[in-house]
Write a structure and sequence with these properties.
single chain, alpha/beta, Isoleucyl-tRNA Synthetase, Domain 1, 4-stranded antiparallel β-sheet, 20 helices
């Protein structure tokens, strides 16, 4: 644990100590950034509840707390306001010192919390088909969370729980065998076309359907030849995913694959274990765990099926095996499942069964990181104009093409290769940021014009803000003194330093609440605050220690924007 806490951690700890000294040891300290400048920088507003519990005047208690509040060297002013708030105005010298410390730190002086092993289950495409837009949110939200948690020093184990098992893979493998026997070439470049042709054969030809079912049995029975063909199909299918991952710039690799097939051998043991514990019982030929915690309107306990009547298993069973593996083998203390919010009930039930069966110890956190749906302009789930599924690779290609046209309009004189590089960073960044900047539980409307705009809360705006600052540093012609002291005289300088000091709290909030949009909000506010500073405080035209100090603030702002956008998986550019 770092010796230096974040600003909010520090202020809450000090206010908490003052509350305890004032006779309220159990009262929670609630310190938040002040809503308006006249309220100071931060506001302690948990005092009224403590006063109510003690049956005393809130302003009187606020005065007692303020008298005992030790913020020497941190705050210049404490003020009792309203019915019992304490407004806190931080010292300019303290903010300057924090900025100076961030400049000399590879991690911008962001404190590291107690370390954990965190498993993140995300992306999880079905390898029978190409990735489509429905896989975008899981992939980039999971990637952002992995980046943030690793930045904070946690051990992150990515688990790409791909769909690579079941009847459809018997069908595809059987079709592959048939194609090769007929002397055809193995061509899976058009994975969707291959799937459609196999499905058509399955639906139209009973003999082929029987062979497909037999292939499933042989595959699940461990037939080496069938398994080799299945693996060949998966390798080619996964290459499609890897192309998308490379374009998106996400960190998933083959080493992170842990598909449904990896748990197949464990499933009989899961069912027998649940039976032995009296949890799974026979119902209409199936093995079912009845959950009183999820009774329906009729008062009947919800049925969590772990084995079908025909002896087959469900993804409900596979998920239990995965929890058990992540707890016992990976030693995870926290497991995040970045999966569509529509699966909320499944995860609530699965977590309940896992707890009751002892697969996940009480101290292991199980969290469903749900998310809403990407919508088209018509307010319905995003589709092609013909109503089909939008392939993710095609969406990303269009983003880059549209960004290339915009870059050409803004900077037609740049070499074409450089314009392509910029277009890739801007286009992909725009798609990712448009998603990550929304509360993940919300549905959002996909709009090219909005996400590619160079104004407003968009990736191009933030990327351009970074580029502007990089330009200031270049025009300083190497005259930046990396050791120059930061001195805050102007109010715009001080406000920028205050915003910079809040970076650590934004990063910690994302890790704690699994909400990447909190970092987006912060970066947008920081970029806006820098623009106000730049307009109010000449940098290159100033002189001496003032110039050196302002260049230091520019350096820290660019480093913070670069780091923050990097945690979202978005590339920054020196030139746009």
């Amino acid at each position: 644990m770092s010796a230096e806490p974040t600003l909010l951690e520090l202020l809450n700890a000090r206010v908490g100590a003052a509350l305890a000294a004032a006779g309220c040891p159990d009262a929670p300290a609630i310190v938040q950034p002040a809503g308006r400048p006249e309220f100071g920088d931060y506001q302690a507003n948990g005092i009224m509840a403590a006063a109510k519990a003690r049956k005393m005047n809130p302003r009187q208690l606020a005065s007692e707390v303020a008298a005992k509040l030790d913020l020497a060297g941190i705050a210049d002013k404490l003020e009792i306001a309203g019915p019992g708030f304490i407004n806190i105005t931080l010292s300019s010298d303290y903010l300057a010192a924090r900025a100076q410390a961030a400049l000399t730190s590879a991690t911008l002086a962001v404190p590291q919390p107690p370390q954990q092993t965190v498993v993140i289950d995300y992306s999880a495409p079905n390898l029978a088909k190409e990735m489509h837009v429905g896989h975008l949110r899981s992939t980039i939200i999971g990637d952002a969370l992995a980046r943030v948690l690793r930045f904070l020093g946690h051990t992150v184990i990515a688990q790409n729980h791909v769909g690579d098992w079941g009847t459809q893979f018997g069908m595809l493998t059987a079709y592959l065998i048939e194609a090769e026997q007929a002397g055809g070439e193995l061509d899976l470049n058009d994975l969707e076309g291959f799937y459609r042709r196999a499905k058509q054969r399955f639906d139209d030809d009973d003999a082929f359907a029987d062979r497909a079912r037999d292939t499933v049995v042989r595959l699940q029975g461990g037939d080496a030849q069938i398994h080799a063909l299945w693996q060949r199909f998966l390798d080619i299918s996964m290459s499609h995913c890897e192309e998308v991952y490379a374009t998106l710039g996400v960190l998933l690799t083959r080493a992170d694959l842990k598909g449904e097939s990896a748990y197949n051998a464990m499933l009989p043991g899961i069912v027998s274990d649940l039976q032995a514990k009296g949890m799974a019982v026979e119902s209409d030929g199936a093995q079912v765990v009845f959950l009183d915690e999820f009774k329906g309107k009729d008062g009947e306990a919800a049925a969590y099926i772990v084995q079908k009547q025909d002896g087959g298993y469900l993804y409900a069973t596979t998920d239990l095996a995965a929890v058990r593996h992540r707890a016992s083998e990976l030693k995870a203390q926290r497991a995040l499942y970045v999966v569509d919010a529509r699966q909320s009930l499944h995860f609530q039930q699965m977590f309940t069964v896992a707890r009751k069966a002892g697969y996940a110890p009480a101290e292991m956190s199980l969290e469903h990181v749900g998310f809403g749906v990407m919508l088209g302009e018509d307010g319905k789930p995003f589709k092609t104009r013909s109503g089909g599924t939008v392939k993710l690779a095609e969406l990303l290609d269009e983003a880059i093409t549209r960004a290339f046209a915009l870059v050409g309009e803004k900077n037609p004189d740049l070499p074409e290769a450089q314009r392509h590089e910029i277009a890739r960073a801007v286009g992909i960044g725009a798609v990712k940021y448009a998603d990550l900047s929304k509360n993940r539980m919300s549905d959002y409307v996909f709009n090219w014009d909005t996400m590619l705009a160079f104004e407003g809360n968009t990736a191009p705006y933030l990327q351009y803000a970074y580029t502007r600052i990089a330009g200031i540093e270049r025009r300083a012609e190497g005259a930046i003194d990396a050791n120059a002291p930061i001195v805050l005289h102007d109010e715009a300088e001080r406000t920028l330093a205050l915003e910079l000091a809040r970076f650590a709290d934004a990063v910690h909030a994302v890790a704690r609440e699994t909400q990447p949009h909190l970092l987006c909000i912060y970066l947008y506010q920081l970029a806006g605050q820098f623009m106000r500073f730049y307009e109010a405080c000449p940098v290159l035209k100033s002189e001496g220690t003032v110039r050196a100090s302002r260049l230091q603030l520019c350096r820290l702002t660019s480093a913070t924007l670069r780091s923050g956008l990097g945690l979202l998986g978005i590339t920054t550019l020196e030139t746009m």
